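Reopening this ticket.

The earlier resolution said the output was attached, but the attachment link was broken on my side. Pasting everything inline this time so it's all in one place.
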Amino acid sequence: MKNLKRDNHYLPISYQFGFTNSAGKVWVKFAHKLEPVERNPRSVGRQRSLYIVTRGGIPHDDVEDFFSRLVEMPFAPLARRIRDEKNRFATITEDESNALCTFIALQVVRTIAHKRCLDEQAGRDLDSNAFVGTLVRQALGIIEAWNEGSPELQFYTPLPHIGDRFITGDSPVVTIQMNDNPIWIPRSEPRLAITDVKQLLNSPNYYFWIPLSPYVCASLTGRGTQATRLPPRVADPQLVRFLNDRIREQSRIFTLAKDKPSLA
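Inline output:
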C-alpha cells in the first residue's frame, strides 16, 4: 500500500502564498492566543486525513490528488501574479478566470468551518466519506450553475489607502446573500446563518468575496451582467473593514496576513 498524503490542507499553500511576507511566512492569530505568530504555510490550515476516503475497506487519497492537480496547481500562477502585481494586476485570461472560479467553488465547501455547518445540519459529526461526498456534490453544483450562468468576476484593491489591507482566515470565502425588503430599512445589520448551497444558487442576488492578497480581493456573482474590469477598482476603506470583520467572525481558528499589525 502506498503512503497516503494525510496532511490535508483545507487552506491551500498556493492560496496562502498571497499573504506571505519576504521570508515566505504568514502571520497567524490563533483564537486561544493573544499574539500572532509567524508560521510556514505548510504547517497552517491543515487537518490530518480530512479528505481520506475509504472504499472497500481501503483508504485512498484520490481527493487530495484531485485538489492538487486540478484546483490548486492551475490557481497557483494566478495567485503569484496577483501577489506580485498588487493594484497593477491588469489582465486575466479565460483559463485564469476558470481556475479562479473553480478554486472559489471548492474553497466554499472544503473547509473545517463548512464541515461544522454540515455536522450541525446532520445532527452528528460526519465521517470523512460523508463529508467528502457532500463537498464534491456541492462544488460540482456550484460549478455547473456557473457554467450555465457565466459568473461575473470583479476585483478590488484598498490601495492607495495603505492603512487598510485585506486579511483572510481558515474560512476565507465570505458568502453574502442580499435580501431585498419591500419595506425600506435605513440600516440592516449583516446576519450570520447557515444557507443551503442550492438555495443560495437560486437566489437572485448573492456574492462570493475572497481576499487574494492584502491588496486584492475578488467578488463573484452567478448572475453577472458586466465584463471583468481590470485593474482592480479602489475599494472604500469601509468595504475592506466590512470584509475583514466577516472573515474574523467566521474564522475560528486563525486569521492570517502579511504583517503582524494587520491582525491586532
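Reporter confirms the inline version is readable. The longest helix spans residues 62-85. The mean pLDDT is 89.
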